[in-house]
Give the backbone structure.
Amino acid sequence: MVSETRLDLKEAGVPARISPSGKEQDALSPRAEVSEAVIRADGVTIRYGEFAAVRDVTLDIPDRQVTAIIGPSGCGKSTLLRAINRMNDFIPSMSLSGLLTYRGADIYAPKSDPVDLRRRIGMVFQKPNPFPKTIFKNVAWGATINGYRGDIHELVERSLRQAALWDEVKDKLHQSAFALSGGQQQRLCIARAIALQPDVLLMDEPCSALDPIATAKIEDLIGELKAHYTVILVTHNMQQAARVSDLTAFMYMGELIEFDVTYRIFTKPSKQRTQDYITGRFG
């Protein structure tokens, strides 16, 4: 079971965030100056019932870097990713032990608000999942229902520009999002996540359903996003991890085998199991 000796997100000692109206909000500042890693796992084990999908994982995710998590299917990489913004909460049999923190605050503390956490830690899923609404409403929806009081048109344009989609959709903002191609829909989902002004972006195999041209655009976009966000990318594509990430974590059978800067993981790994996986001897 989850430990009860944990801090509330709002007890992390980080300054409150300022809303577009100028009023102070009860939220962590996205760029708060703290010494902790942005995301820290300390002995994290995640179980579905009796099955341990993730076992005793310890690692630190640094700010404004792209961290890739690789490994064969079923190794626990998506489970670990979804734990970071508590998407696993929707699975009744899930339990987590160890400590998982966001900027020093325990993500699974009893008083932690999962909804607030997901505003700070956005997620892009494996398959594009636009809402059955217009392009404009897809981007504006989350910010609007969360009380955004700034210029919503400016926010939508800025988010679409950051997602490298504005030039392709600026003349059809009020058309259905379903009219977009698969790659455009995925970039729209990224824009939708960005519009909430998160601190961290989680990406769970965001290119697996896309063709090579769309994949290249998403990879280019990931490289640009790290100027503003901490990006954590789960991918089964080792070449993609090598192309876009600064650091790479290799997981196998629920364990973190190795975590290092990407070029060392792919050129001179320190663990034999990493070497075997990289060279295609298993997985």
In short: Residues 40 and 60 are 5 Å apart (CA to CA). The two ends are 31 Å apart (CA to CA). The chain has one domain: 9-278. The first strand starts at residue 16 and ends at 18.
